[in-house]
Design brief:
Number of helices: 9
Radius of gyration: 19 Å
Oligomer: single chain
Distance between the termini: 30 Å
Mean pLDDT: 94
Structural class: alpha/beta
Strand content: 15-25%
CATH architecture of the largest domain: 3-Layer(aba) Sandwich
Low-confidence stretches: none
Shape: globular
Largest sheet: 6 strands, mixed
Bound molecules: NADPH dihydro-nicotinamide-adenine-dinucleotide phosphate
Number of strands: 14
CATH class of the largest domain: Alpha Beta
CATH superfamily of the largest domain: NAD(P)-binding Rossmann-like Domain
Order of helices and strands: EHEHEEHEEHEHEHEEEEEHEHH
Length: about 280
């Protein structure tokens, strides 16, 4: 087998990245397309982030993904941001363009591609649970896609308000905050409910504290949690006959966008999905 060259490496930089399915998906898809590329999973402590990015430059990495807790702190280490990444204020994907490193955010785009398979968000009233990195990316893409309203429900009112202020300042979609205390009752006129919190990660029985009340039959419920895909929220909503989306579609779609940006090749998304499903069981 030929040795990989330094130009053929991408990497995931973050903390506690051991259980992340992206490396598995990427390597299977590189092989499927006959690319002798490598995708590394690298633990990087916050104080070492600058050195890690300089290392990516020095070693000629084609690009990489950035995950917790580096999505926001990585910004000053890059040369340029896409409009989406600048609006969101966070980067999860780096692309090398010549000598420069471009920061992109594919989390929200991956989510949107998945959602569009079920419903067009244009003109829809959205309730978004959470205000962390994933929620921010999703909120911006939903706003850019023409969502009618976005109600952010978040435990930390300060974090929630900061997302709402940013949405109202930078997009045309009106956003408002509901501080999350006890069970949140989803308003009857909601079209799309998104769980963008970390509740349910590695815990199939974790309950998202919401009550669906008299929700409309057309309500779409999406969960960002990919592991396990059948979260309690997804299962309960399916039992009610609602349309649901799990987090696997989002992770596959955002990986497909990264693959395309780095290699210039349209990936076989089915290969990616099968790899992701195999990984998360
Ligand atoms: P953050 O840590 O940035 O944000 C976590 C969010 O969850 C915050 O809004 C936090 O509220 C909320 N939260 C956590 N625990 C609770 C709780 N017990 N009750 C109420 N709210 C809670 O994480 P990320 O946004 O980066 O990631 C969130 C999840 O999204 C992760 O589990 C990750 O696996 C998943 N994800 C999935 C992707 C995919 O492709 N499928 C891509 C990216 C992320 P507060 O602000 O009050 O702390």
């Amino acid at each position: 087998m030929s040795q990989p060259t330094l130009q053929e490496i991408c990497a995931l930089l973050g903390q506690a990245v051991a259980g992340n399915p992206t490396q598995y998906m990427m390597e299977k898809t590189f092989a499927h397309h006959g690319l002798d590329w490598r995708y590394l999973t690298l633990e990087v402590a916050p104080e070492d982030l600058g050195d890690a990015i300089r290392g990516m430059r020095a070693m000629g990495f084609r690009g990489g993904n950035i995950t917790k807790p580096h999505k926001v702190p990585v910004v000053p280490h890059l040369d340029r941001l896409t409009d989406a990444a600048a609006g969101i204020g966070a980067v999860n994907c780096i692309i090398r363009e010549g000598d420069t490193l471009l920061g992109e955010n594919t989390d929200g785009k991956g989510f949107l591609e998945s959602l569009r398979g079920v419903v067009d968000p244009q003109g829809k009233r959205v309730v978004l649970l959470g205000a962390g990195g994933a929620a921010r990316a999703i909120a911006f893409e939903l706003a850019l896609a023409g969502a009618a309203t976005i109600t952010v429900v978040n435990r930390s009112a300060e974090r929630g308000q900061s997302l709402v202020d940013r949405l109202n300042e930078k997009t045309k979609t009106p956003a408002s905050l509901v501080p999350w205390v006890g069970d949140f009752t989803v308003p009857e006129d909601t079209d799309v409910l998104v769980n963008a919190t970390s509740i349910g990660l590695n815990d199939a029985e974790a309950r998202v504290p919401v009550k669906l009340g008299q929700s409309r039959p057309a309500l779409v419920v999406a969960d960002v949690i990919a592991s396990p895909p059948a979260t309690r929220l997804v299962r309960k909503c399916k039992e009610r006959g609602l349309r649901t989306l799990d987090g696997v579609g989002m992770i596959v779609n955002q990986a497909a966008i990264g693959f395309r940006l780095w290699t210039g090749i349209e990936p076989d998304v089915q290969v990616m999905r099968e790899a992701a499903e195999e990984f998360v069981g």
